[in-house]
Amino acid sequence: MKLLLQISILFGICWLGEAAASLLPLPIPASVIGMLLLFLLLLLLRGTKPVEELTGFLLKNMAFFFVPAGVGILGQSEVLRKNLLPLLTICVLTTLITFLVTAYTVRGVQYLQGRFAARKEAR
User: Fold this and answer.
1) Is the CB of residue 21 less than 8 Å from the CB of residue 30?
2) Would 6 disulfide with which of 15, 45, 54, 102, CB 3.0-4.6 Å?
3) Is-contact 21 37, C-beta < 8 A?
């Protein structure tokens, strides 16, 4: 029963996000507003204890939530087959770009940390 109450609260927060997004003249997605509301609620409750049981349940059953997406992809198999080469090219290129950007970011941060440590030692 506790889990059902927690899920109801979570859906209520999502609903409030949807309502706020439709009422506010701001171009903010309802999911972002819902996340902000959940964050504020967690701050007010001073901790994650109220949602730990729910999050544990959702994490244990995460694979179940990917079933609709997988079925949707299978439903579009003809479109995927027609565009397989461009999709694979995009996946490979974006993966390589992500690796390169991550590697150079790490190198840049290490360089800056080294300079900061050298300045600190020089004092």
Assistant:
1) yes
2) 54
3) no
